[in-house]
Amino acid sequence: DNKILPYCSIDKKKDKKSVGELEQEFLQALQSFYYDKKPMMTNEEFDNLKEELLWEGSNVVILSPDEQRFMEASLAYAAGKRLMSDEEYDRLKLKLKSNCWQKSNSKVAIEGPRCSLRSKKVYSDCTVDYLKMTLLNLPAVLISLLVVFFLDDLTGFEITYLLELPEPYGFIFTWSVVLPATFFAARFITNLVFKDALILKGPCANCGSETNSYFGTILGVASGGSTNDVKCEQCKALLKFDSETRLITL
After folding, report:
1. For 114-234, where are the alpha helices, taking DSSP H only?
2. How far apart are CA 156 and CA 224, in angstroms?
3. What is the mean predicted confidence (pLDDT) over 38-56?
4. What's the gap between Cα 93 and its chain centre?
5. How far apart are CA 177 and CA 162, in angstroms?
6. Can you give the pLDDT at residue 36?
7. Does an H or E element contain 68, and which?
8. What is the mean pLDDT of residues 77-101?
9. Diameter of the chain by CA atoms?
10. Hey, which of 6, 119, 157, 192 has its CA 20 to 30 A from 245?
11. Taking the model in full, what pTM does it have?
């Protein structure tokens, strides 16, 4: 009927817009409403557009306010219009990249290898390598579990006996004593060996292959401050990782 969403029409497949075009239209609508104060569509049209993007699985409609500002500023700059100064843009981008530890699916500010005409250098963005950060704790967890098994054997399997108590006593003992003790012991051992650990990953600014860099101390030996020089394993290019700006420089 006449209330069908225009994006869902099966009679005009040639005129149906792509997800990228819909996302750009969504951001332009936000920009015109909040910055230009001239809505480019009605509230109903905006809701229909947002609903269609949700059905398409787009993440643009669930961006945080900072992510939306960043996307709007990027689109406006590409169209020849500035919404903020270069300094504000750089601060906002760094904030989004630095907050990736709290929100790991935030990829708005992450870009691949690119050239800067101003600095005449090649850059790419890097993010936290969550998998390797998790694996850093694995040795300490195994050590903590071995200590628990050793104490269990030393006490004549008293820990096993307490774990197998009828519910809810066994459950309470497991979650209030054994698991917290194992967790804190593993954390203590990991922090003792890897203090202020941070592992960043990103595409090589020369060949695009994934590279990693470790920041922090290992048994009291510092890795080199906020910047590390890393050689790409694929193309052997010399890269500089910066943990503060989250940039890889060729």
Report:
1. 130-135, 138-154, 158-163, 169-173, 179-193
2. 48
3. 82
4. 13
5. 11
6. 64
7. helix 65-78
8. 77
9. 77
10. 192
11. 0.61
Peptide bond into 168 cis (omega under 30): yes
Q: Could you tell me the two tokens for 145?
A: 């579990």
CA 96 to chain centre: 9
Contacts of 223 (CB under 8 A, 6+ apart): 214, 215, 216, 217
CA dihedral 49, 54, 59, 60 (to 10 degrees): 10
Distance CA 183, CA 23 (A): 43
Q: Which residue has the higher pLDDT, 110 or 237?
A: 237
Domain positions in the chain are: 110-249
Q: What is the mean pLDDT of residues 213-234?
A: 83
Query: Which residue is it, tokens 């100064």?
Result: 85
Distance CA 88, CA 229 (A): 28
**Residues 180, 184, 187, 191: what is their CA dihedral angle, to the nearest 10 degrees?**
170
pLDDT, tens digit (0-9, with 9 covering 90-100), for 193-206? 888 888 888 888 88
Work out the percent of the chain whose per-residue pLDDT is above 90: 2
State yes or no: pLDDT of 11 exceeds 70: no
Report the interhelical angle of 86-98 vs 65-78 (nearest 10°): 140
- Which are the contacts of 3, defined by CB distance < 8 A and separation ≥ 6? none
Banded model confidence at residue 240, pLDDT cuts 50, 70, 90: very high
